[in-house]
Structure formats: structure tokens, C-alpha cells
């Protein structure tokens, strides 16, 4: 399986790399595939990162004078397609695949890791259901 870097329509430069690394790490053992160059792969994974929204407040401190958010939420939305190159058949396709990650104030990277983990899990489960 060849996992192509996703096109990134967000201003978050590190997101495509983090997503690619997570897919390579999780797809191989869970789907029973090996990483291969696109020319020799039986299947390819490609997609577009559509949006990455951060700083959605989830909970606030109890300070009534100046409430501040103590937990925040980020949301990741992408389109993904897994295609069998030998037949040309689409194995899995989802537009608007969405995942959220909750994080503590100042730990956006932790929330991003959580959202990436969730969205990769959804891709694996979707592909498994079509195999």
C-alpha cells in the first residue's frame, strides 16, 4: 500500500507529516499491508486535509471575574480515498471525515495528536469494513 502525502488546505504545516506518520504506523499492522512505492503498490491512499479548527473552548475556570478556558477542542476534517490499483475500484472513500481532540490550555499539539489518532482509526475501521 502506498500512502501519499495529503494535500493540505490548512495553515498548519506540520499536520500532513503527522497524519502520514500515523497512517504508516497504524495501517501496516491493523490492515496487514506493507508500505510500497506508488508504482508497485496494490492500493493507494490519498486525500485532502480540508480544515483544522483550534481554540474551541470546552470548559472554563470558576473565576467569575475573568473566566478563562481551561480545556479546548480542535477539529480536523479531511477527504480520504483508498483505491485498489489493480482493479481501479475504490475500497474506501469518505468526504468530510471529522475527528476532534480535546487539549489543555497551551497544549494544541496534544489535541492534534489525539484528533489524528482518532481520524486514522476511523480510516482503518472504514477500510476493514470494505475488505
Describe the structure.
31% of the residues lie in helices and 40% in strands. With 131 residues, it is α/β, with parallel strands linked by helices. It has a single domain (2-130), classed as Rossmann fold (3-Layer(aba) Sandwich). Strands 1, 2, 3, 4 and 5 form a 5-stranded mixed β-sheet that branches. The longest helix is centred in the C-terminal third of the chain and has 23 residues, at 108-130.
Helix-strand layout with pairing:
Layout: E1 2-3, E2 7-8, H1 15-31, E3 43-60, E4 69-84, E5 90-104, H2 108-130
Parallel strand pairs: 1-3, 2-3
Antiparallel strand pairs: 3-4, 4-5
Low-confidence stretches: none
Distance between the termini: 14 Å
Q: Whole-number average pLDDT?
A: 90
Query: What is the CATH first-level class name?
Result: Alpha Beta
What would CATH call the architecture?
A: 3-Layer(aba) Sandwich
What is the 3D form?
elongated
The helix/strand order is EEHEEEH
- Quickly count the helices: 2
Q: What is the number of strand segments?
A: 5
- The Cα radius of gyration reads 17 Å
Amino acid at each position: 500500500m502506498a500512502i501519499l502525502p495529503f494535500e493540505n488546505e490548512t495553515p498548519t504545516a506540520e499536520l500532513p507529516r503527522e497524519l502520514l506518520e500515523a497512517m504508516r504506523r497504524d495501517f501496516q499492522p491493523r490492515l496487514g499491508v506493507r508500505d510500497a512505492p506508488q508504482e508497485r503498490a496494490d492500493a493507494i491512499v490519498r486525500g485532502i486535509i480540508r480544515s483544522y479548527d483550534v481554540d474551541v473552548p470546552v470548559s472554563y475556570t470558576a473565576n467569575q471575574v475573568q473566566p478563562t478556558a481551561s480545556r479546548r477542542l480542535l477539529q480536523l476534517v479531511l477527504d480520504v480515498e483508498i483505491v485498489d490499483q489493480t482493479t481501479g475500484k475504490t475500497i474506501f472513500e469518505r468526504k468530510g471525515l471529522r475527528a476532534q481532540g480535546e487539549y489543555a490550555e497551551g497544549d494544541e499539539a496534544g489535541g492534534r495528536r489525539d484528533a489524528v489518532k482518532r481520524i486514522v482509526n476511523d480510516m482503518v475501521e472504514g477500510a476493514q469494513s470494505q475488505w
